[in-house]
Amino acid sequence: MNKIIALILFGCFLFSINLYGQEGVPLTLFQVEKVLKSKEVTLKERNNLLIEGIKERGITFPMYRSVFDKLAKLGATEALLNALQQKAPQMPEIIQGKFETEGRPLQISNSIDMEFRLIPKGEFMMGAKPTEVGSMENEKPQHKVVIPKGFYLGTYEVTQGQWKAIMMTNPSQNKQCGDDCPVDSVSWDEVQVFIKKLNQKDDTNFTFRLPTEAEWEYAARAMTKTRYFWGDDDDEKEFRMYANADNKSPTRVGSYLPNPFGLYDIGGNVWEYVEDVWNTNYGKGKNDGSANTEGDARDRVMKGGSFNWFLGELRSSSRGKVTTTTKMPNVGFRLAADFTGK
What we know:
By secondary structure, the protein is α+β, with helices and mostly antiparallel strands. It has eight helices and eleven strands.
C-alpha cells in the first residue's frame, strides 16, 4: 500500500514539472535533474521513468562531458545516460576549456539549486557594427571592452519556484507556465530585494548580483562576432526548435538551445535586467566591464529579447530601456555570482 501511495505521489510530482502532460515536448536538463534529485520513489524507478519519457519525447540539451558527469553523480544509470546520448541534439562543444579558468570549477550551484556557469576573462567588441542589420543607434558606437576577471553567470533565468523560495510569493503573470518557467512581472527594484535576501540566506562562498551590461553581452556572444551567437542568419529555427514560439507566453527554462558558454535561453524567453543605468551613447560607456552608473538611475537596461519576440531583439547587442519600478510579463532576470570566500 505504501508503495502504491508513493507511486501516486510521484506521478503527481511528474505532472507538476510537466514531465508528462505535454505530448511531444522534449525534456529539459532542468527537468531531468529535478527528477533525479526527487526522493518520492527509488532511484531505479526514477531512471526508468526518465528513460521512457526521453525515448518518447527527446531532450533539449546537448550531452556535453560536464552534463554527462553531473547526471552520473546524481544517480543516472548507464541505460539512462545512453538514452540521453541517443536523443541529444548536436551542438558545438562548450568552449570554456580553451581558456584559463584559474582552477575554478566550470559550474557551481547555490542553496536554492540555481546553477551558474564559469565565464572566463577576455575581451570583445561590444555593441552593433555600423552596418548591422536591425541595429539601433543606442547600440553604437561599437567599442572594445575588457572583462578583467572571470565570473559566474546563471545557466538559466531565475525561475518562479526560485523566486518563491526566497520571497514566499509568485507575482508572475504567467503562473500557468509553472515553477520551472522564468519569474516575470517583477521590477528591477524588487530584484534588488530578492538579491539581498538571497545573499543573506545563502551559505556558499559566493555573493549574487545582476550582471553588468558588458558582462551579459560578453557572455551572450560567447566569443562570436555575429548578430546572434548562432550566426548572422535570421532563420533561427534550429535554435528555437524546442521553445514555445506562439508569441503568447514564456516557456520552461532550458527550452532554448545553449550558446557556446553553456547558457540557456540567452536570447528569447524573457528580457533580462542588468545592473546598468540606461545611456543612449555607448561612446560614454566604460571599457572595463563594470556597470554604467551615470544618468538617471530610475532608467535601467534589459537584454536578450523575449517570447513575444522580434528577431532584432534577439541580437547580442540589442538592448531595451525599463524603469526600476516597471513590471512586465515578458521581463525577468538571471544572476551573476562572484567568489568571496565568506
